[in-house]
Every structure is written in C-alpha cells, then in structure tokens.
Design a protein that fits this description.
This protein is α/β, with parallel strands linked by helices. 46% of the residues lie in helices and 15% in strands. The chain is built from 15 helices and 13 strands. The strands form 2 sheets. Strands 3-2-1-4-5-6-7 form a 7-stranded parallel beta sheet, sandwiched between helices. The protein has a 6-stranded parallel beta sheet with strand order 10-9-8-11-12-13, with helices on both faces. α2 links the parallel β2 and β3. α11 crosses α14 and α13 crosses α14.
C-alpha cells in the first residue's frame, strides 16, 4: 500500500488545508495510507486526531525574534532541537516509510521535508500565502514539486523552477452553505445588512475596538444584523467597550457576540460584508463564496504576509484593506457606511472576488500528490 506523510503545524492555516487534502485523497482512493507528523503539544495533534488520521510526534520550535528573558530560554531550546532535527527526522522517516512527503507549513515542516528530499523520497510543499515564508523559500530549491495558492507568490521565490498554482483548500461545507437557509436558521431577516467580523481565535484588540464603534453606530437601527467573534482575549474587554458606548448587547437580538465562531460556513453564507484579518485560508474562503470584505492584516506575522495576501484582493478590486497602523474607528465606519449605502459597490467586489477564486483546489492539490505515486 502506498503511503503519504503530511507534515504541518503551528496554526490552523497550516493544519486544516493538509487535513482537507488528505480527506480528499482518502475519498478518491481508499487504498492509500495517509499519516501526519507534527508537534505533540501543538494544535495539530488535536485536529489531526479529530480527523481520524494517525499522528506521529516530532518536536520543533521556531526562533523568537523579540529577545525577552522568556524568549531567550525558548531560543536555547529551539537551537537544541534544531541540532538534532535531521537525525530525528531521518529516524521518523525510516519508521513511517512514506512514498511522498507533503509539507504545508509550520516549524515542523522544514526539517522533515528537507531530510526526506535528501533521502530520495518524493516531496511537495504547498505555500498558502502570496508572500512565501523563509522555510518554503529554502525548501523550494530541494523539493520535487512546489504548489502555490496564488500566481503572485512566484515573484518572491529565489529559484527559477516550475510552480503549480492550485489555490488553497476550502472546506466543503463553506462551498455548499446556502445564504437563505443560513439566514433562516440564524433568525436573520432576508433584507437585513449582515456584518460578520472576527480577528482570529485569540482576538485582536484593535479590531475589537473598531467593531465596538461600528456596533454603536448601528445600535437600535432597523435593517442590521451583526455577528462578531471577540477571540479569547476579547471576552472581557468587548462587553466593557459596548457598555461604555451604551450598547445593550444582552437584549439586542440583532447582535450575535461570541468568543469563537464554530459554524463559519453558515455565518459566512449569511453575511453581506466580512471584517477580518487576512490569513490565507480566510482569504480563500472569502473568494470561494464571493464575499465583500474589509481586511485588517495582522502586522505581527512573519514577512508581513497578511498584507501581501490582502493586496492581491485590493489590486483586483476584490476587497478593501485598512492597515492596522491606519485603523481608526472613523475610518472603519466610513468604509462600512459606503458598503451599506451602495449595494452596487458590494456586488462589484463580490464579482471580482469570485473571479479570483480557484475552484476545486482540494482536488487539484490531491491530483499533484497522487501523480508522484
């Protein structure tokens, strides 16, 4: 039986695409053995096991750029792990015996994919962002295939080779969700202007503050519905912000405020406009459903890749970007008012977003992997 090893970790943006593609391959061919490797303490361990794939632990850590006493200790451990990474990766690969190794990102991906390449095992990397990370830039010189989410990413790789643009995997439930049914289920009136906003699972202080201002603006007005995820660190702050602005978030049935959105497919389907960060998978989901968006790229990510992700949409007329350094409550309000008052602008953004989407990304990535078998 042929075997594929997926290596991923760190964030859901690296892990969920791998799981989506692995599931697609499993549905296409039951006779292929699929396993995963990642940090045993990372979220990949939980997500992979929930998806019912075998999981092999491999510990790896990144270097912390901000030198605090705590980070210095972490960096010492990171360097220690790095010095043994190739030996440990070789041992793991000999144990698993994969025919193909697929890296989708995270600190754990680099040493295993690189070692597999040196051992003569066929290797693939998939870059989800418009601006590739350092690890994938280095791996691009060694691996069998390089898959990209967007054409723009080609410009930032240091090597001339064949790149295959496949798009990013999008969960099937995102693609199949119906707007009318989602609104009926959530109690949203057909003609309400529905805003969906979130700043990531941990929450973003600047985003939460801007959204509180938006809620104060439409507070008590008819024709609005607003779904907002505060994130872990916003659960205490956000209610206080609304109380300061005299927004009755407890009794207002048109406000849906929660820590985390676990039915994103329904919320995305129900929405007219999305206010969000610019992570690769979020962007791909916006494009897949053709949704107008106001993106606030996180400035706290490697290579400022969220800015580059958002810029692709802005250049195509497929979204609006407000950089965090330029974000004010008034600027956010101005953009929301413009979209709410001009349905034609929303429709044009939706059309441009849909045009940027790459359909069947799961199947395209799966096909490229299966070709190596």
């Amino acid at each position: 039986m042929k075997k594929i090893l997926f290596v991923c970790g760190g964030t859901a943006g690296h892990i969920n695409p791998a799981i989506s593609v692995a599931t697609t391959i499993k549905n296409m061919n039951k006779d292929i053995d699929i396993v995963f490797a990642g940090n045993p303490q990372g979220m990949e361990a939980r997500l992979v096991k929930n998806a019912d794939f075998p999981f092999y632990p491999f510990t790896a850590m990144g270097i912390q750029r901000k030198l605090t006493p705590e980070n210095i200790i972490k960096n010492i451990k990171s360097i220690s792990l790095l010095t043994t990474a190739q030996i440990r990766a070789k041992k793991l690969l000999k144990e698993i015996k994969p025919d193909v190794v697929v890296g989708t990102g995270g600190y754990v991906s680099g040493p295993i994919v690189l070692t597999a390449s040196k051992m003569g095992i066929k290797t693939i990397i998939h870059e989800q962002n418009a601006f590739p990370g350092v690890t994938n830039k280095l791996l691009s010189k060694k691996v069998t295939k390089v898959l990209l989410a967007v054409e723009k990413a080609k410009e930032h790789f240091p090597t001339q080779r064949e790149f295959i643009v496949t798009g990013n995997p999008v969960r099937p439930e995102i693609l199949s969700a119906d707007k009318t049914k989602a609104r009926e289920k959530m109690g949203i009136k057909p003609n309400d202007f529905c805003i969906l906003s979130f700043g990531g699972s941990l929450g973003a202080d600047r985003v939460n503050r801007a959204i509180a201002e938006v809620m104060q603006w439409h507070n008590g007005k008819n024709g609005f519905y607003h779904i907002h995820a505060t994130g872990k660190y916003g659960t205490e702050l956000f209610p206080k912000l609304l109380e300061e602005k005299n927004v009755d978030y407890i009794n207002n049935k048109n406000l849906d405020i929660r820590e985390y959105i676990d039915n994103m497919w329904e919320c995305l389907a129900a929405s007219d406009v999305v206010i969000c960060r610019a992570g690769a998978i979020t962007i791909s989901e916006l494009l897949a459903v053709g949704r107008a968006s106001i993106m606030i790229p996180s400035p706290n990510v490697a290579e400022n890749h969220q800015y580059h992700n958002a810029k692709v949409l802005v250049d195509a007329g497929a979204g609006i970007m407000i950089e965090e350094k330029d974000l004010t409550e008034q600027k956010m309000l101005d953009e929301i008012k413009k979209l709410q008052e001009n349905p034609l602008i929303v429709k044009n953004i939706e059309k441009s977003a849909k045009n940027l989407a790459i359909p069947n990304a799961n199947e395209k990535i799966a096909d490229e992997i299966l070709k190596l078998l």
